[in-house]
């Protein structure tokens, strides 16, 4: 098991792990048209969990939160002098040098958790569903590591599909990766996203993660009971496998040397 890149930050500032959150499930796919919605439906078939579908994905919220945390991992940046020694240090500030006065690290980390809880967990619980999660196609392993830092009991599922089949299903649409100007349209752009995400998933070695191939799910090579056990769920219904929902009207376009390049 590889240590979290955030472990050194927690140790430096003596931060105890955050409370558990009833095992949220985060599903990351290599790209669009990888079968992530099918897997999302399968996981939700137990009625124990809400898996949000790419929530506000164009805004890149998850990636932005994760990126904002990465500078914390630099060993030579934060210094104890940045933080008040105690509540009394927040009084009489006008007579001291306070240009770089920060809230304490535990407050910053808790603020990440508070935002994600309010955004993802609270609406699921209002509906009477005890657990939550999300699926995304825009996120790599660094975002997963950030989420594992915030939710130490989370489970992760990384899904990949043959890139030729995924592209044949995607070809002909233009979807936003991150607004306003990162739009995926060409085979090169799609392939770069697939390669980046897939290679990053392979760097995950913690037992909280499970790597799956879409092809193994639809052919039954991966038993649904194993996916359910990893996610801590009851029996997953196979019904979604029998009801194909494409989500877009166009049929797949079989790749050829000419069609692949455009």
Secondary-structure blueprint:
Layout: H1 7-12, E1 25-29, H2 36-44, E2 49-53, H3 61-69, H4 105-126, E3 131-136, H5 141-150, E4 155-160, H6 163-170, E5 175-178, E6 182-184, H7 187-201, E7 209-213, H8 214-218, H9 224-231, H10 239-242, H11 257-260
Parallel strand pairs: 1-3, 1-4, 2-3, 4-7
Antiparallel strand pairs: 5-6
Helix pairs in contact: 3-5
Short description:
The chain is built from eleven helices and seven strands. It has 262 residues and is of the alpha/beta class.
Description:
This protein is of the alpha/beta class. It has a single domain, classed as Rossmann fold. Helix content is about 40%, strand content about 15%. It contains eleven helices and seven strands. It has a five-stranded parallel sheet. Strands 5-6 form a two-stranded antiparallel ribbon. A hairpin with a 3-residue loop joins strand 5 and strand 6. Helix 3 crosses helix 5. It is globular and about 70 Å long. The mean pLDDT is about 90.
What attributes characterize this protein structure?
single chain, 262 residues, Rossmann fold, 5-stranded parallel β-sheet, 11 helices, 38% helix
Main β sheet profile: 5 strands, parallel
Query: What number is the mean pLDDT?
Result: 92
The fraction of residues assigned to DSSP E strands is 5-15%
User: Which class best fits the helix and strand makeup?
Assistant: alpha/beta
CATH fold-level name: Rossmann fold
So how many helices? 11
CATH architecture: 3-Layer(aba) Sandwich
**Unreliable segments of 5+ consecutive residues:** none
Task: Give the domain tally.
Answer: 1
Strand order of the largest sheet: 2-3-1-4-7
List how many beta strands DSSP finds: 7
Overall CATH class: Alpha Beta
Helix-strand pattern, N to C?
A: HEHEHHEHEHEEHEHHHH
The outline comes out as globular
Instruction: Give the terminus-to-terminus CA distance.
Output: 42 Å
How much is the radius of gyration in Å?
21 Å
């Amino acid at each position: 098991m590889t240590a979290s890149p955030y472990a050194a930050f927690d140790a430096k500032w003596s931060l105890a792990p955050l409370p558990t959150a009833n095992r949220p499930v985060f599903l990351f796919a290599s790209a669009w048209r990888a079968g992530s919605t099918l897997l999302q439906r399968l996981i939700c078939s137990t009625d124990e969990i809400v898996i949000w579908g790419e929530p506000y994905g164009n805004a890149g919220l998850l990636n932005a939160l994760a990126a904002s945390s990465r500078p914390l991992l630099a060993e030579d940046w934060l210094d104890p002098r940045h933080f008040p020694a105690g509540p009394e240090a927040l009084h009489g500030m006008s007579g001291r040098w306070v240009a770089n006065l920060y809230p304490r690290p535990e407050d910053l980390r808790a603020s990440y958790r508070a935002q994600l809880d309010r955004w993802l967990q609270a609406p699921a619980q209002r509906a009477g569903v005890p657990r939550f999660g999300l699926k995304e196609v825009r996120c790599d392993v660094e975002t997963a590591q950030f989420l594992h830092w915030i939710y130490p009991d989370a489970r992760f599922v990384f899904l990949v599909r043959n890139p030729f089949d995924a592209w044949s299903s995607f070809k002909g649409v233009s979807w936003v990766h991150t607004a306003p100007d990162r739009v995926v349209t060409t085979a090169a752009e799609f392939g770069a996203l697939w390669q980046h995400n897939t290679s990053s998933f392979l760097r995950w070695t913690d037992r909280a993660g499970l790597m799956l191939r879409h092809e193994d799910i639809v052919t039954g090579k991966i038993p649904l009971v194993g996916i359910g056990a990893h996610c801590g769920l009851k029996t997953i219904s196979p019904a979604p496998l029998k009801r194909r929902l494409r989500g877009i009207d166009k049929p797949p376009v079989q790749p050829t040397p000419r069609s692949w390049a455009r």
